[in-house]
Amino acid sequence: QNENCPVTGEPLSVEELIAIKINKAVQPRPAGAASIPGLLQTFQNEWDASVLETFTLKKQLDTVRQELAHALYQHDASCRVIARLIKERDEARDALIELREQVKNQPSTESMEVEEGFPSEVE
């Protein structure tokens, strides 16, 4: 049919091909599946397996939903904390800038009054 390898696309020769031996006999159905009660039992087993798999998948889905809800809650809380910290940082920067401007605008001739020694209550 095709002179190229289906995987690599390289040309193939007849010597590179391997003959495949297959059993052409069809496997017979189990004896239980040959009767109506046997077929009903087979269908019941398949149905039970499908229901069990669906239950397991729904249970796993519920677990994943709970984990996702928890992760989203933590993310939201983290974003709120970060926003609060950024706001506090910006307020502190603004206060620092305002304080620096006040220090620059004060006349430098004024000196602070400092009391010498300790108060009488401390001695």
Please give the structural blueprint.
Elements: H1 36-105
Question: How would you characterize the overall build of this protein?
Answer:
This protein is mainly α and 123 residues long. Helices cover 57% and strands 0% of the residues. It contains 1 helix and no strands. It has one helix spanning 36-105. The N and C termini lie far apart (112 Å). The model has no long low-confidence stretch (mean pLDDT 85).
| Poorly predicted sequence stretches spanning 5 or more consecutive residues | none
Coarse shape: elongated
**Percent helix:** 55-70%
Q: Give the biggest sheet.
A: none
- Oligomer, anyone? single chain
Strand content: under 5%
- Strand runs, count: 0
Mean pLDDT over the residues? 85
Rg is 42 Å
Short description:
With 123 residues, the chain is an all-alpha fold.
Keywords:
mainly alpha
